Amino acid sequence: MTIQQLIDQIRIKKSFLAVGLDVDLNKIPQHLLELEDPIFEFNKAIIDATHDLAVAYKPNTAFYEAYGIKGWMSLQKTIHYINENYPNIFTIADAKRGDIGNTSSMYAKAFFEDLNFDSVTVAPYMGKDSVEPFLAFENKHTIMLALTSNEGAFDFQTLNVDGKELYKHVLETSKTWKNSENLMYVVGATKAEYFTEIRKIVPDSFLLVPGVGAQGGSLSEVCKYGMNTTVGLLINSSRAIIYASNGTDFVEKARAEALKMQQEMSAIISLKFKV
Amino acid sequence: MTIQQLIDQIRIKKSFLAVGLDVDLNKIPQHLLELEDPIFEFNKAIIDATHDLAVAYKPNTAFYEAYGIKGWMSLQKTIHYINENYPNIFTIADAKRGDIGNTSSMYAKAFFEDLNFDSVTVAPYMGKDSVEPFLAFENKHTIMLALTSNEGAFDFQTLNVDGKELYKHVLETSKTWKNSENLMYVVGATKAEYFTEIRKIVPDSFLLVPGVGAQGGSLSEVCKYGMNTTVGLLINSSRAIIYASNGTDFVEKARAEALKMQQEMSAIISLKFKV
């Protein structure tokens, strides 16, 4: 998917919601456990119920790997299901990969070719040659960790490097890499006040924003400081939507939560872009 | 496996060699491609031929994920094969994972429980709560990136933070985390001169050292500056051993390369420990 196609979808749906598919068998409705592939069935139900409200789905690979081969099969079925049935959806493999060059090429192959995701999240610690292999794929997007939503973000990401926080160096340096136009960045919603500074460095890039909802971030604050002229945000919500209920009404409850977020987003878009 | 058991194996085998199982179907002997699971068959042959010379095997997960479910099955068969046939071998899932707390717990479950590896490599960028879930597992080991062997290591890892390189902050900070005795660190062999400084911060920890051989690092230099009183090093070699030949003699050639490294290591151990 191209960036323009993603922007178009945001305009059409008046939504910049990414639904995180972090499926834990202990948290899904127990009646699904009787089915052959409960994780896929859960995802399918959530996707069918929310695809008109969300522009992106983001399975976190950890939740699939934890179930071994069965989990990897559920992931594969999920991404195929989305690609076949909802081709306008932007798909994110939340994998946080990164390794030396020839190894990162294999990860890129895994997520962009074998699984056919539109994007994958990567970690920056190993630098340029660990990320550029991902950037080489046309119309695929590499979402690099910049400032994350967790407590540990303050351990290293905000360390002072020559008068400037490390995450700012990460953002600036990444702009010099080959095909850097294929970069997006992870910026946690729990740090809304940082968005102003971040937008000075990457005014045009899409930012994937976790941490709204369960982790305490505010949608309106993030939009106030983080939105750019094409919206430029993908707000992720996982638990608040997919675990809205663990009963037989989980589909309706998930849709209701997604709708609530989409309506907030629609209001913000209307206000900001006077449409 | 406990640290003491690993140290015992190093003494018994006079080796601190870790063989990297980074299997690329384009590089293995082509006659194996006729078999049902060429990756596993290749690994099995390499392991059978080198298990008395190596103390550890390190499959890099990227090379398995690139082949989708079939790749993941090859990885599972490989780790099961090692655990069943060579229980004294230390196993390393080179996965470089790291995410927020509840997600890192799922990764830890994937590698320590589902696949039953002794250790997994992790990335530090997301800080304490992204690593501690791995450290909570008893007799499992978490190998965190400190200073890597690639060119991009100099993008961020050596940035000056208050007069000290970032990777030193990473090492120091990680020592304050819960169950930090379960930490080991990745330090690239291409940066042998850094080992002296690193040993001042983590004198007792095991260091996993990639970059000897194909990437240009020197075994004797690394040992000179990096060894501690229990050896404290695991030297990884991947391509130099497993791709020593891509003909029908690949097993003999791989063994010959591993033997060469083991003999160098044995000589170093004898010299250093006067045994």
From TrEMBL, chains A, B:
Main enzyme class: lyase
Keyword NADP: no
Keyword terms: Decarboxylase, Lyase, Pyrimidine biosynthesis
Pfam families given in the database record: OMPdecase
Membrane-traversing stretches: none
PANTHER family cross-referenced by the UniProt entry: OROTIDINE 5'-PHOSPHATE DECARBOXYLASE
SMART domains per UniProt: OMPdecase (SM00934)
Enzyme nomenclature, EC number: 4.1.1.23
Pathway where this protein functions: Pyrimidine metabolism; UMP biosynthesis via de novo pathway; UMP from orotate: step 2/2
Gene Ontology molecular function: orotidine-5'-phosphate decarboxylase activity
Organism: Flavobacterium gawalongense
Highest taxon above the source species: Bacteria
Catalysed transformations (reactions): orotidine 5'-phosphate + H(+) = UMP + CO2
Residue ranges of domain Orotidine 5'-phosphate decarboxylase in the record: 16-254
Taxonomy of the source species: Bacteria, Pseudomonadati, Bacteroidota, Flavobacteriia, Flavobacteriales
Protein name (database record): Orotidine-5'-phosphate decarboxylase
One of the GO BP terms on file: 'de novo' UMP biosynthetic process
UniProt family annotation: Belongs to the OMP decarboxylase family. Type 2 subfamily.
